[in-house]
Amino acid sequence: MKQEHAIPSEWLPFLSGGGMMGAMMRSHDWSGSPLGHPRDWPQALRTVVGLMLNSKFPMFVAWGPELGFLYNDSYVPILGEKHPASLGMRFHDIWGEIWDDIHPLIVRALRGESTYMDRLPLRMHRHGYDEDTWFTFSYSPVRDEGGTVAGMYCACVEATAEVLAERYREAENQRLMALFEQAPGIIAVLRGPNHVFELTNHSYLELIGQRELVGKPAREALPEVAGQGFFELLDEVYRSGQPFVGHDLPVRIQREANAPLEERYIDFVYQPFRDAKGDVEGIFVEGSDVTARKRVEDELRAANRQKDQFLAMLAHELRNPLAPITTAAQLLQSGQLDAQGIRNASNIIARQAEHMTDLVNDLLDVSRVTRGLVSIEQEDLDLHDILAEAVEQVRPLIDARRHELRTEIENVALHVAGDRTRLIQVLSNILNNAAKYTAPGGLLVLRVRRDAEGVVIAVCDNGQGIDRQVLPYIFDLFIQAERTPDRSQGGLGIGLALVKSLVLLHGGRVEARSEGVGRGSEFIVHLPLLSTPMVLQAAPEPEPVNTDDGLRVLVVDDNVDAAQMLATLLEMHGHHVSIEYDGKGALEHVAKDRPEVTLLDIGLPDMDGHELARKLRAMPEMAGTVMIALTGYGQPEDQKRARDAGFDHHMVKPADLARLLELLGEVKEARR
Fold first, then answer.
1. Which strands, in side-by-side order, build the sheet including 115-125?
2. Which one of 153, 345, 440, 493 is least enclosed by Cβ atoms within 10 Å?
3. Is 433 exposed, middle or buried (CB count within 10 Å of its CB: 0-12, 13-18, 19+)?
4. Rounded to whole angstroms, how far apart are CA atoms 253 and 344?
């Protein structure tokens, strides 16, 4: 500026002070401004300018027909690069880029109407580029001495930083809410002592079912959870301010209206949060629905237990035939047998070896069938012949256990397409199970009839039945109806799995029914038929054969070969041996003739050896009798259980002959 344009402040008192803009106004060249020289400004304008220059609030005045623009120091940052050229310029020339937005407000002010705008968005060009801004301001009319509106006055605040900060916070909140909503884990925010739902995410609603939660107390929103401990945990966390962490906890919830409660498993944290004073304000809930993982883990644990049980069963079943084989071999090695004794020992070895071979073959069979490696020979078969051969195979066991077998077979042609050997295997396996799991003297019924789908073959018994918890899995590998430690009926738990696989290969299906333990069972095979029915004579039912085996050492074992070979061996060493094959017989024998030593098998058909030992120990006749347990189970817990039942000694099959004779020698020596 040229010094000659300077205006002494004492000439114009309203421009005195005013900071930077007061000084600029005093030194400004006003020749090109529509406002003219300040000495000519009307008193109203002078008054407003004087007030504005001494204010710390951003302000400007637009005066006259062309709205000459005047502003204070606080308004300079709003102008940006437009300062200082804007001083005294026309309002429109300064803010042309936002004129369309502010002109209607200016018109209203010039008409005498004040306006107020809160955070009005304006796209300004003040730093060399267009930018979005927001302003809170008021436009007010300014009147001259005659009362006419001669200009307008503005007090304003730029809210751009606050708006952008709020938008950023809102965007962040939206991102957080999106993450919250999309989080795979369950999330909820509960507030207050009543645990009112404030927020929930999609996963939480998936867990508990789609329902309105927000604004409701937890007990009202989830009434079915009452009594399960979760509300009490929330109360304790809110009261104590201590978080709670739960793992694999079951919760029963009604995921759909009018639906039954469904059990789910969850991992979760109840984390309290506090207000500014440090008081607990609410609880943040975070966790995961681990039902699928829990079920897989349970299945894996069950499979692992099943594997361990199978290995234990396999060891037990292999020890059973090994016992008579070992004893027979020791007898043969002794060289004291006559010709008949040698034949008997040889027959026992052959028979038991065949039994072991059958066990191994069963394992191989079920492995091949379940892996789809077995194909069946398709031929036209008369089911009557198949049934007869299956009964013939199982007849020795039925007779040995003194069962009654009834057959109810329709007198019609029953022809099926399939593999003769495999179908006999299916039916004999079911009959064999019925005989094994029915107490001696039981009833077995074989029913065969036609229906709309084909032929129905049912084997019913009045035996031990099947536990309802086991029934759904009875055709799975290594599953048995009874899982008692004695394993009195033997078997590897693979027969029914093999049955199911073979029946499916024949286009049929198989099912099992039972009212529960002790109430018998029924196995039903459905097969498709080939031929038209025709009347046939029913095959005569074979007559049952009754067997009555009976003989100062009492051997109790339901394995005939093992009992007889052990008795022969002990007799060769000068002992007097009697044999019983079940617990009832042992109790009757002891009541008549007290033995000095009893050798008890743990697995017996009517009661396990532990129960028998307890009953024998309670009999006066057994005072002083030495009891030795013989079992296929040799784990420490098995030995402890034997001692608790009253046994003096525990021996694993096949028994160590030297150790057994040593024990008997000690008993004999003690009697002298």
1. 68-71, 59-63, 149-158, 130-143, 115-125
2. 440
3. buried
4. 67
pLDDT at 115 over 90: yes
How far, CA to CA in Å, does 382 sit from each of 293, 417, 429, 508, 562?
50, 9, 19, 16, 39
Q: Which two tokens stand for residue 475?
A: 């055709």
Question: The domain at 3-164 falls in which architecture?
Answer: 2-Layer Sandwich (3.30)
Q: How far apart are the first and last CA of the chain?
A: 142
Residue 219 CB coordination number (10 Å): 14
Give per-residue pLDDT as tens, 514-559: 988 888 999 999 999 885 443 444 444 444 433 333 238 999 988 8
Give the pLDDT confidence score for residue 541 in this predicted structure: 47
Per the CB < 8 A criterion, the answer to whether 155 and 168 are in contact is no
pLDDT in tens, 134-171: 999 999 999 999 999 999 999 999 999 999 999 999 88
Q: How far is CA 446 from the centre of its chain?
A: 42
Identical fold between 183-289 and 375-527 = no
Q: Could you give the CA distance from residue 480 to residue 539 in angstroms, rounded to a whole number?
A: 33
Task: Return the CATH number of the domain spanning residue range 183-289.
Answer: 3.30.450.20
Q: Mapping DSSP to helix (H, G, I), strand (E, B) and coil, where does residue 56 land?
A: coil
Residue ranges of domains in the chain: 3-164, 183-289, 303-362, 375-527, 553-671
Rounded CA-CA distance 230/222 in Å is: 11
Q: Quick check: bond before 654 cis, omega within 30?
A: yes
The CATH number assigned to the domain with range 553-671 reads: 3.40.50.2300
pLDDT digits (tens, 9 = 90+) for 364-391: 666 666 666 667 778 999 888 888 888 8
Q: Cα dist. 47→55, 61, 112, 172, 294 in Å?
A: 13, 11, 18, 48, 82
Read off the pTM. 0.46
User: CATH for 375-527?
Assistant: 3.30.565.10
> In this structure, what are the phi and psi dihedrals at residue 136, rounded to the nearest 5 degrees?
-110, 125
Number of Cβ within a 10 Å radius of residue 107: 13
CB 419 within 8 A of CB 378: yes
Amino acid at 7: I
C-alpha 355 chain-centroid distance = 42
- What span, in angstroms and rounded, lies between the C-alpha atoms of 225 and 218? 9
* Mean pLDDT of the 423-443 span: 89
Give the up-direction half-sphere exposure of residue 300: CA atoms within 13 A in the CB hemisphere. Answer: 6
Q: In 3D, which of 600, 534, 522 has the Cα closest to residue 566?
A: 600
- The two three-digit tokens of residue 479, written as one number: 């599953």
